[in-house]
Structures are given as structure tokens and as C-alpha cells.
Amino acid sequence: MDDESEQKHFLRVLKSFRAYETYSLNLLEQKKKYLHEVPKEDQELVKKLAARLNRSEGAIRTNAQFIGKVLQPKILFSNAGEIGPNSNGADVGGSNGLSLSDVDRVRTVLKQIAREWSEAGNLERHQSFQPLIDVIQEHFGKTPVSDLKNIRIFVPGAGLARLPWELAMLGYTVQGNDFSYYHLLVANYILNFTHGDAPADLNAANGSSPKSVVYPYVHQTNNVVREENQFLAVGVPDVNPRQLPTTGAEFSMIGGEFVDACPPWELVEILENV
């Protein structure tokens, strides 16, 4: 991808994030309109659904507040300023060139935030990340802790950077890589601008309000066992991403294709049996 194409793609991703709230609320309003068209004698049947849609609106606005935090550190991205404060993507399918699938990717990222950086994702992370971590630990188990910083690990497809962060916490020098700006923007915010101060129980009736909350499943209306599953609130992040070991190990994230981003390190095939 040449520089001009990459810049256009980056701006498209930013517009997608900015369009999330407007797109989602417009879709919600359409559903409310359908409910209002239900005959009066049947309104009682959809009363609970109407309340559920109102609850969804609050969750969507909370997600939008989090997205606003993600986009706030524009100084890190020189071309972010080309999207002005009024470019909120209201006309998702119009002149701004966005498609509905662009905004749907933002909704997918919200779920990934829960998987990688909330307590709700503990089990899934243990099932997917721990086997890789165990193999690495077994392979380098005899290495003195003070020398782990000399072991360099490259993690392609790093998503929101939780796996490379976990490896860096063990003392290795790690570089994560991902091609998606959707991932890189959120990972940048979580790694550099948060410190894990959200309370543990966000869904308790008397729980305090955390600084960073997302409702990752608010848009999931199929295969929902209970209404509360759809409105599960998660605190982000569940740990302090900036609290890395002071052993001299380095941790970083890099964007781009794996074949272009992979540093000229000596590759060791230790994960072939995982």
C-alpha cells in the first residue's frame, strides 16, 4: 500500500470510529419507529422491548465516550487532524465514503476489547494465550531472569496487544505487529493512556463509576440467554499496561504487513507443536 492509499485508509478508519455513535443510534431509532407502528392493542406486548432499546441507547453513548478517549491523542498521528470535530460520519453511506461494514468493524473491536483487556476475557485469554506462553516458558525455562531481555519475540497478528504485553511482563523483549488500524488505534490508547483504575464490579447496583467502561455486547441481540448478558459492562483495562518490569526489556507495537514489519531477528521455531 503506497503512502497516499495508506493515509486514505487511515482516515477511513478514523471516520468509522467517529460514525459509531450516529450510526448505532440511527439504527436504534429505526427499531423504535417500528415499535411505535405496532397497533395500540398490541403495545403492551412490546413494552419490555421498548425499555430494552432505551437501555441500549445509554450503553451506545457510553461506548462512544470510550471511543472519544481512543481518538483524543491526535498528536501521535499527524494526519488525524484532517478529520475535523464535525466529521462525525452522520451520513454513513453517503459522501464520506463509508459503508455500514466499516462501522460494524468498530463494533467488533468493542468485543475484542473485552476479550483482551477486561476481567470478562480471563477465561478466553487463558485458553488461547496460555498454551503459547507455556511453550515459550518451557523452551527458555533455564534462562536466568536477568537475561530474558536478550530473548526477542515477534508477535504477528497481535490484535490489541495483550499477548505481547503478557510476554513483556515475563521479561522478554517483545514487538507486536498488526495490520489493522482499528486494532492499532485502540491498542495505542490502552497501552499508553490508561492505568487500570476501573473497579472490579461494574455491574453491582452500588458500584462506583469507572473511568473507562464499554458495553461490548450491546449490539448482540441473537443467542442472548439473558438480557443482562447483552448489557454487561466491562472495565478497561483490567491491569496497568504501563507497569512493565524494570529489567531492561523492550516492548513495542508496529503496524504493517508481517513480511514487511518482521525485524531481522533469528527465527526460532518453538511453536510448531502448539
UniProtKB/TrEMBL annotation:
Question: Is Transferase among the key words of this record?
Answer: yes
Q: Which UniProt keywords apply?
A: Methyltransferase, S-adenosyl-L-methionine, Transferase
Q: What class of enzyme is it?
A: transferase
Secretion signal span: none
Cited InterPro entries? CARME, SAM-dependent_MTases_sf
Q: Does the keyword Transferase apply?
A: yes
Give GO terms for biological process: methylation
Q: Which GO terms describe its molecular function?
A: carnosine N-methyltransferase activity
Which Enzyme Commission number(s) are on file for it?
Answer: 2.1.1.22
Residue stretches in coiled coil: none
Which family does the record claim for this protein?
Answer: Belongs to the carnosine N-methyltransferase family.
The protein here is known as carnosine N-methyltransferase
